[in-house]
Amino acid sequence: MDEKPLLVQSDHSILLEIHHPACEAARADIAPFTELEKSPEHMHTYRMSPLSLWNAASAGLSVTDILGVLDARSRYAVPENVRFFVTDTLGRWGRFQLDATEDPGTLVLRVPDAHLRRELGSQRRLAGLLRAHGDDFLLPLVHRGTLKKEMLTLGYPVQDLAPLKDGDPLEVALRSVTGLGSPLTIRDYQKGAADGVLGRGQPGTGFGTVVLPCGSGKTVVGIEILTRLATNTLILTTNVAAVHQWIDELLDKTTLTADDIGEYTGDKKQIRPVTVATYQVLVWRESKGPSGNDEYPHFKIFRERNWGLIVYDEVHLLPAPVFRVTAELQAVRRVGLTATLVREDGAEGDVFSLVGPKRYDVPWKELEAKGWIAEALCTEIRLELPEDLRIPYAVAAKREKFRIASENPSKEDVVMQLVANHPDDAILVIGQYLDQLQRLADVLKAPMITGATPNAKREVLYEDFRNGKVRVIVVSKVANFAIDLPDASMAIQVSGSFGSRQEEAQRLGRILRPKKRNALFYTLVSRATSEEEFSAHRQKFLTEQGYKYRIEVF
Predict the structure, then answer these.
(1) In a domain, 169, yes or no
(2) Is residue 420 part of a domain?
(3) Which among 4, 168, 484, 535 would be 20 to 30 A from 232, CA to CA?
(4) Does 178 reside within a domain?
(5) Strands 274-278 and 233-237
(6) Closest by alpha carbon to 208, among 223, 189, 225?
(7) Angle at 56 between CA 111 and CA 328, to 5 degrees
(8) One domain, residues 104 and 249
(9) Rounded average pLDDT over 31-42
(10) What is the distance between the alpha carbons of residues 26 and 226, in angstroms, rounded to a whole number?
(11) Sheet of strand 261-264: strand arrangement
């Protein structure tokens, strides 16, 4: 076939013909500087944005590299406005360089262009951060992250070349054999992710974000980076169960002992060379007081040791208050781990500025094809609202409409039927509304886990599920977060947040650990209601990743 697989369009989108023989090679070429937008059967749509291009620039790609790929792979001539967009956007990278000075508490922002210096000096939002110094600007070290965030908002990314501190050393190495007696193998993509973050020690590396599917071993990436740096490490994650999973993985896969690892949660306050904490404990405060870090008493953990690495697990869930203290920690090596950089609050730019640009990404379907995650079959089942709920639904306010549709009692019969039809599957029934979940737990005679379930009881139930004593668990939104249930093979989603793509990705991820059977993901939706509209938005992320939803009408 002489025709090439890409169609580059003037709106900065790129169409990739899936059935073309050069499809996979072209996909690999454009992935570093584009974002996948949608992926139906025949044509996938990628898009270039300033953020995607700056991500590429931070990884070392140039205008020549990117335009060279487009010219080589595009079926038709690349539109001139696209060439200008790439050139102009990449031209902004490196025009503002942040570097060290002889004073360890002060950085210098180098701006060689006189016009840009004047423009920068006129920005009110930067007035309290920068101080003019000859042809440059001086910046207090504490404002390193804040400046990068504000500059990105203005459309000018800062290339951060200031050195990162090493932190206190730590004796740690990977085991050759895990605690369970099996050989420890770091997969190629996990090594590639660590390489992407750490680079070869050149300026501008040592921080960044890794995007990998749920179930693909993001924790191992964090452990690989920790052992390479061999330094005191702070790991932040979503809940107590995830804290314990990290500790178990560290003990299983590294030479660290229990005395080396601290748990910093609502239950324990241990600070050790490797400390694992929850976001929730960090943002706890007795009452809302005046602004400032003192209102969050546990922020002191960031200053308790000379950390050399901070790992932000599930970085797409990083709470806004932690962004603030993260802005102060720019001298520390850091990595964000996530299955999706989609943030419903639109704060992807904050992740880029404060944690680091995307350094590594692998499509879910690529890892599925290689057997590293389970093949998932997604089905949406649509049900009618019962007759007695149609008038209440019609006259309800918007938010109440969604709840009536979500709690459709007809869903209970479908859940019962699905559970009965899959006697060999380990099943999670996941929902948003506690009354609905309690009814389901009662009819299924299954345990229920919510945010109010004590952590000790949660872990007992999770362990019972892992060893087969319990086949069905009903779970609230706690299932959206890092839970290691490797044998879970089926999820039934009965309700969810308002169109959250992030939540859809996390819930599917609960059943993607590789296993001998396909993963089954069912979503129950009330027909001709607002739930259909929100469900379509929720599915967007997974369809972008190449998953197809089969629709059944019940």
Answers:
(1) no
(2) yes
(3) 484
(4) no
(5) parallel
(6) 225
(7) 55
(8) no
(9) 79
(10) 33
(11) 261-264, 274-278, 233-237, 309-312, 333-338, 207-211, 358-361
Q: Which two tokens stand for residue 210?
A: 């890794």
Residue 377 β-bridge partners: 520
Token couple for 157: 């990314």
Domain with 103, as residue range(s), is 97-160
215: domain CATH number is 3.40.50.300
pLDDT one-digit tens code per residue, 73-128: 999 999 999 999 999 999 999 899 999 999 988 999 999 888 888 888 888 888 88
Closest CA to 306 of 329, 278, 338: 329
Which amino acid appears at position 365 of this protein? K
Q: Provide, for the chain, the percentages of residues in helix, strand and coil under a 3-state DSSP scheme, each rounded to the nearest 5.
A: 40, 20, 40
Q: Is the pLDDT of residue 346 over 70?
A: no
H or E stretch at 509 = helix 501-509
Select from 261, 240, 277, 253 the least CA-distant residue to 481: 240
Q: What is the pLDDT of residues 364-400, one digit of tens each?
A: 888 888 889 888 899 999 999 999 999 999 999 999 9
Phi, psi torsion values for 378, nearest 5 degrees: -105, 130
Residue 473 scores a pLDDT above 90: yes
- CA–CA gap between residue 83 and residue 60 (Å, rounded): 19
Reduce the DSSP state of residue 310 to 3 states and report it. Answer: strand
pLDDT digits (tens, 9 = 90+) for 141-167: 888 888 988 898 888 899 988 888 889
Domain boundary among 91, 119, 149: 91
Q: What letter would DSSP give residue 231?
A: B
195 lies in the same domain as 223: yes
Structure tokens at 147: 């400046």
Shared-domain flag, residues 339 and 227: yes
Dist. CA 67–CA 222, nearest whole Å: 33
Final residue belonging to a domain, choices 328, 362, 396: 362
**What does the pLDDT average to over 124-139?**
89
Rounded CA separation 471/108 (Å): 59
Question: Running DSSP on this structure, what letter comes out for residue 351?
Answer: I
Q: Are residues 290 and 379 in the same domain?
A: no
- Which of 346, 328, 356, 361 has the alpha carbon at shortest distance from 153? 346
46 and 141 belong to one structural domain: no
Neighbours of 398 (CB within 10 A): 8
**Domain tally, the chain:** 4
Is 495 part of any domain? yes
Same domain, 388 and 518: yes
Q: At what angle do helices 240-253 and 218-229 cross, to 10 degrees?
A: 60
